[in-house]
Amino acid sequence: MIIPCPFCGPRDLSEFAYCGDADNLAARPDPAASDQSSWNAFVYDRTNPAGDHAEIWQHAGGCRRHLRIVRNTVTHAISDVTMPGAKA
Amino acid sequence: MTSHRCAEGGTAIDRTDTVGFTVDGRQYFGLAGDTLASALLANGVRVMGRSFKYHRPRGLMAFGVDEPNALFTVTTDGVREPNVRATEIEIFDGLAVESQNRWPSLDNDLMAINQLGGKALAAGFYYKTFMGPVIGPLKGTRFWMMCEHVIRRAAGLGRPGTAPDKSRYERINAFCDVLVIGGGLAGLKQAHEAAETGRHVIVCELEPRWGGAADGKKESEIRQIVESLESRPNVTLLTRTTVWGWYDGNMLAATERVSDHLKTAPEGAPRQRHWVIRAEHVALATGALERPIVFPGNDRPGVMLADAGRRYTETFGVLPGQHLAVFANNDSAYATAAALRHAGANVRAIVDVRPEIGAAAQRLADRAGGALKLGHAVVGTSGAKGLKSISVARYNHETRSFSGGAEEIETDCLLVSGGWSPVVHLASQAGANPVWDDALQAFLPPKPDAHWSVHGAAAGDLDFDHDLSPAPAPVFEIGHPGKAFVDFQHDVTADDVRLAHREGFRSVEHLKRYTTLGMATDQGKTSNVPGLAIMADALGKPIPDVGTTRFRPPYTAASLGSIAAERYGDLFPHRLTPMHDWHGDHGARMYAAGHWERPESYNRPGETVEQAYVREAKTVRSGAGLVDVSTLGKIDIQGPDAADFLNRVYTNGFAKLPVNKARYGLMLREDGFAMDDGTTWRLAENRFLITTTTANAGKVMSHLELCLDVHWPDMRVHVTSVTDQWAGAAIAGPKSRDVLAACVTGTDVGNDALPFMGIVHGAVSGVPVMICRLSFSGELAYEVYCGAHHGTHVWEALMAAGEPFAIAPYGLEALGTLRIEKGHVTAAEIDGRTTARDLHLDWMLSSKKPFVGSAMMNREGLTDQSRWTLVGVVSRSGEKLHGGSHVVAGDRDGPGPGLGHLTAMAFSPEINAYVGLALVEDGGNRIGQHLYATDPVRSGTHIPIEIVSQHMVDPKGERMHG
Amino acid sequence: MAEYSALSIVKNALTGNRDWKPAWRKPEPKPAYDVIIIGGGGHGLSTAYYLASEFGIRNVAVLEKGWVGSGNIGRNTTIVRSNYLLPGNTPFYEHSMKLWENLSHELNYNVMFSQRGIINLFHTPAQEDDHARRGNAMILQGVDARFVRPPELKRRVPALNLSGSSRFPVLGGLEQPRAGTARHDAVAWGYARGADRRGVDIIENCEVTGFVREGDQVTGVETSRGRIHARKVAAAVAGSTSRVMALAGINRLPIESHVLQAFVTESVKPCLDTVVTYGGGHLYISQSDKGSLVFGGDIDGYNSYAQRGNLPIVEDVMSEVLELFPAFAKLRLLRSWGGIMDMSMDGSPIIAKGPLPGLYLNAGWCYGGFKATPASGWCFAHTIARDEPHEFNAPFTLDRFHRGYVIDEKGQGATPWKH
To answer: Pfam families this protein is in (chain A) (predicted)?
Structure first.
């Protein structure tokens, strides 16, 4: 698998560290305002789709930035790479 | 033995260069350029292997990677390489090979007695027996394991050795616009076309020579293209290079056999080279493999694939036999028959299942001579160790009926062609499902996308010369009584396939798994399609409805050494601290801590490790000791929001930490369990240095980066790992201040200038240092950090300054002793399963702010009274405690359930007893209890202990504050 | 159906093997069953078998979307062991071990369970303590465990690099002598045949496409072969758990699907007589009866439903093989493949009632489903039949994650790709 890092260019899978479901990570509850069940769901529950999956990868062996990548979990094809903060 | 070498011909051989080699110690001669297969064939050797199950004698069947039978063990410098195909071994002077899976010899194998088992040893018989008695001494798995012992010795092919392989394997990363796989004519043309547009092209050919299966007449055309490609800087040409894996993103793996074919490798050359190729576009020109026909006696030595016969003749000038017969369901073998006749063989008969053939085939048949038996089939063969004759009967392939009697034809070589299968393996690996083509009776690659293309025979473009038709008759098996083999190496017969059908193993994967069809070293290259066809026939379905298995890497077996190239042995990473050499020079025993090497203890002559660490710990408690703490993770955190950031990731508060002060900190994971601890130094308003445990340095760094990038991208904070930039030495003991006072310049180190958790900047022996007064040992102690390159210089200066105070270096063992006595935790206690409360660190959980883990740390499972919590333990008997011991309530005869376990132990010179830390169920309420530490698996000890507070020495911390 | 035995083999051989019957029937689905089990893998089949043999529930259908045993039962590295650390795991896996020890007899099918032992190597004093801790936990819970030192290792594993020159020299190993390997496909086939002989309908090529519900109550399934009703529906579809549960409207679970690759070399004569694991990384290796070295390492580490992995892990695993066995450098990798693991949030499985009334879930097997096959089916059958867990699977609830009662052998927390 080759991941197109917006900072470093296309790089091997072996340079990246997987960090999990991007949509889930983006939905981290507000620590002050949230109830326990939304925290429980955030920490433990995943949609785990077969198909397009937004996920966070860190270019650990490169620029060390975290990337939001849309990757198909059936074909492994990558269709989108953005910065995780950009959406907010 | 008669020589089968023709008087002339042979594009690969050098007739002036005779090469000597041995098989099972017997001397043979071949010619330079020969493969072991061609050389043995030239020497008249017919039996070249024994099959897996029945140990039937087997001869050469194929020309290349599809060879199932002729496997040998090659020994080089005492290292054995089993199961090498004779078709791929290029001979050189002194080559020594051994035949396999036979006893006592290849020609006379007593294991062939297995054949007497006959039908009782049919597919899957072993699932139905060997279970043994239900009661008695052989119950359970015992009887099976007795049988298995014998079976294992009979199974397997070549024998591996135990001598380490000293060969070097090399790894290379390559990038190209176009990767052409296959150096036959189609591949070369494709490469040429791409190269002319200026693109960077890599061409891989698995054979030693260019041209693939193209016949001799194309020789000059091929040479021309290769010469043109060789002259271009944008083309890389690789022979003896097998592309075996196609991974995501057009990343391909290939093995180049650099020096296997050489008597002596050129200096510096590896044995093999592992290519990892990223290609913009992959052009598959992998050709097609000829299929055998399944008929009784089809495994007798002398029965060979037709095109293999042609190639041995053209490439090596070796005739596969003197009196040939051909058995075919298609036109391609007719050209072979004519070519071999031209090379001097006598063609006795051409047997074809088709009742009629085209004019082109007819012309070639006339040229070949011999009887043309159309509408006939081979129904049997004879000959003890090699083919002597075949039985041929009239056969209607549409009704599958025989008529008339069988006719015997004397022949020493039967060339068989059952049609052609394009090599679709790599495309299938990449996820493309092959498509059945009725005309070719074969699976073809599907329609490619922009990332790949397919050319030549691999695309089903079987461009036979002489206007021959590429379409075979749909005949895969001649259903006549007798053992007819589908998978030669694994002895899977057509009857086995039908048995699998009868017993319900009908999906293609069940067929494969139940019969082992296609699981041999040739990976079913010749057996897949015939096996499928027989199953489809039994099911009454068309072949594509039975499906084909997905091909998986590797296309041909690749050595483990090549795939692991440059990644094992002494190439595994080591991490050394700046003071590493000093430790070694001063008697330190080194200890592997992850990738780090750390001093365990500095043993003086005659000292045991325990004597050394007890002495070192005493030195710290009574005078001064110096320990290398450079391995601690160090992260520089800067930015206007740095303090706020630390407030969010640590359980305790940092916003109010003054500049030049440090604080102990604890981090939780999001799930509320403890993650890591360390100290945080505020170096400036917006700059902090944090330390982590050695073990968790990487994990903490990634965690902080994730928080900043993903959760709080608006925070103005930058984190940088500086673990390798700072050397660190901790100086501890009542005299440590005196030592510093003696060598630190530019700052006062007295109690007022440098109070507990204070930070000062100064110099030691001219090198700038940063000193923080903090303590892991519980003594008055300081951590002295300097730039990594000055680590040894500062360390030596500290040692010199400490000499009047009898300073001694101490290692991990003494460090452990000191921290155990104090009840300080490390990764042994913060093991990913413990909470802050379990470790009595709940005082660090701020209630004034949220932090990572705060929302999850109060769930019922994390606050349950029965959780294991940190306690101290003291051996009551004076016996040495053992790490990993469990805490139990009962004596040796009835220990009862485990109540917890020891996380660390040491001899404490302060308490004068063996002590330890333990995580114990409801530990807080067990202080004072007398229990046992039991270690049945290792030391066998069962030691009476007392549970005590984890603060075993100086519980009020007066020493470190002093 | 005839018993399998040496005698039956000889008798059938005399009639040209023409009288063997299918190992299990190929029935058409009935309109309704007492219990429907989704998933004809090892766990689904063993559940059906024990429902029929232990709990008297025979009106059972196993629905398999492809062919029997096409999931992870047919693509693992065949290791059977019960050498666990944590109290929640040990009794369950030890129960499994006891079922394994008599499984060939129980099923009248040779699953070739060979108790050749497993040796977990350790390379540093800290690792030695960790292994002692695990061995002691095993012994205290009635499981066999012993330490093996280099002289014995040299004798028993002659190809092992004990020279001390390796990066992480071997200090010793923790052995579970009763552990070993079994023929993975035979386990699926043996359970299928055993369940079939007790009346269970095993229906291949029958994909579940939806759930039939009355309110929350699950009352059946929609399939590619029509609607089938059942009093209880149980899913044992590790690897596809999220996909199947989504059909029931359960869209979030403490599970991620990850690809795990496995590897075999060409067949060679016996050279490794026990299962060995490497403590300097993650590798488990044994030699099959056929002679292939069979081994695996870490999952690739990203969500995947493709039974196909990537090259970096292949290279990692090979380097670990050679770190332990430099003599194997010239052996050749013959085949590799990928399986889809249900990676749970704590590395431990789920065998529980729910998450809807009438629905039962067996999932989250991570790397460890094969060895659990007998006990998983046994406990799941108990849970389905009695509507409550057996004490062996009582800790494996679905709500343990939210409540904080995780069973985390590796101490990695809710990062499933690190378990």
So the answer is: SoxD
